[in-house]
Design brief:
This protein has about 80 residues and is mainly alpha-helical. The protein has a single domain (about 10-80), classed as ACP-like (Non-ribosomal Peptide Synthetase Peptidyl Carrier Protein, Chain A), CATH 1.10.1200. The chain is built from three helices and no strands. It has helices at about 10-20, 40-55, 70-80. The longest helix has 15 residues, at about 40-55. The protein is globular. The termini are far apart.
Length: about 80
């Protein structure tokens, strides 16, 4: 049996959020959530979305953006693109 050393999708999302907010992941507390995480306000949300699209080579339709407010909702959108 082989085990993967690749980070989970949730971990990659967390890392992308930290990069977007220009903070070390260790400095962010959980849950990572818009309005709760320092710097993740409306402008921070734009940066988070751009970083996520870059990290996952994805493009989120505009109507989905207001739903991407935390790691679980982002993971769900990435796993089930519409």
């Amino acid at each position: 049996m082989t085990t993967s050393t690749e980070p989970t999708i949730e971990r990659r999302i967390e890392q992308a959020i930290a990069r977007a907010l220009k903070m070390p992941l260790s400095a962010l507390f959980t849950p990572l959530k818009m309005g709760w995480t320092p710097g993740w306000d409306s402008m921070g949300h734009v940066m988070v979305i751009m970083e996520l699209e870059n990290e996952f080579d994805a493009s989120f339709p505009p109507y989905v953006l207001p739903q991407l407010l935390d790691v679980p909702s982002i993971a769900k959108a990435l796993r089930n693109p519409k």
